[in-house]
């Protein structure tokens, strides 16, 4: 059932998307976040604001089916024209509908909601209310992933927002080849943090710490950029930054830290 237009919460985004653009966050959803999906009584997942092309929802269904073959992905878009264009791709486990942050799912509650490059186009003051609305619709143990990435997915960041506890972590995932410094990802921080990358803010200090560790470990580049990155992440963890993952994730160009370490002051 499609909700009445006045019930839709949100505004139409530019809709820019590309195949494989969200591979980095999908790799995290099928990795560290996978236990939530495995435990779910209803394996419902939402691709919120998928954009002008439904390809990201199609890819999400394929990638999460490795975790649970019965995963049910619903692509939600505020633009009825985009939804109509996606409908021919519907099949068991993949459907599309008109809606916004209110998640029109006929009473069902998703365990995972991926909202990428959506809130980036909103004001910072609108982020927390959007988070809270989505959280109110999640299943017990559910998670909202609010993130941003560049046009082809080389640089990506996301905040994991727990349905019960609110934001719990910030993840950064980078293509290491050609990386000059980790803080190059700053322009792709989620809306809740992008304007906070200034002196005195925690996320600014965090990115500076990553840059410093990256610079100190430049001699390791002769052994490959991945070795340099592993050493840099190990260094920031040793300095006391609350890194939540381990070398298996770091090798992917990824690092996740506790939200308390980067949250706005």
Automatic annotation (TrEMBL):
It comes from the Bacteria. InterPro entries: SAM-dependent_MTases_sf. This is Methylase. The lineage of its organism: Bacteria, Bacillati, Actinomycetota, Actinomycetes, Kineosporiales.
